[in-house]
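Retro notes, item 3 of 5
We never archived the inputs for the cytidine-5'-monophosphate complex last cycle. Fixing that now. Sequence and ligand:
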Amino acid sequence: MSLKTKLLIALDGPAASGKGTLARKLAEHYNLALLDTGKLYRAVGWNVLKAGGDPENEDDAVAATKKIPTTDLSNPELKSESMGAAASKVAAIPAVRQLLADFQRHFANNPPADKNGAILDGRDIGTVICPDAPIKIFITADVETRAKRRFLEEFGNTGSEEEYRTILEELKARDTRDVNRATSPLKKADDAHLIDTTNSDIEAVFEAAITYVSSKE
Ligand code: C5P
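Structure as it came back at the time:
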């Protein structure tokens, strides 16, 4: 990597694909500023629900998006699958996406001086937010594998079969909404490198990603 050129990595993929963990590892390895863009949509969903609104209502969602600068993005409540569902509802509203796009692009193009660049993870980073990113990765896994990961994260070893089934159905519903929405659907960019994590642990996925990044140097 040329020292003069800042690195920009666009990382996309469905829920519970291992995207967040890979993004954190790449950010640490290459000293990159990291933006988990899913958190922005989760925070919008959270703001809507807190105000007693409907995540599918445009006025409610736009008002909630305007509160983002003062919303605590580290709130642990944002992590739940129910907040993922609210996020995917507000994320289907074009006005919400537009309001969040400038913030994401500014983050991508203006990493702090002490960083070597930026990495953004989400659904439309390689296709819409940073279509010119020199490095694009699309990470995925089959839905049962992703549901098992999310189930273990939420319930550890104490969850029931019924709770697993609920998470599986929620993930399927979220995939359907994210893939089929009219604006910025979840989609692999043509020039993104595909990593399927169904049968790989995070270390193997990380190795595959850095091998790909090295090939682009
Ligand atoms: O990645 P995460 O699971 O936190 O994302 C929550 C939801 O936010 C996704 O299901 C998706 O609907 C939405 N999202 C999006 N575009 C992004 C990031 C997330 O539409 N760039």
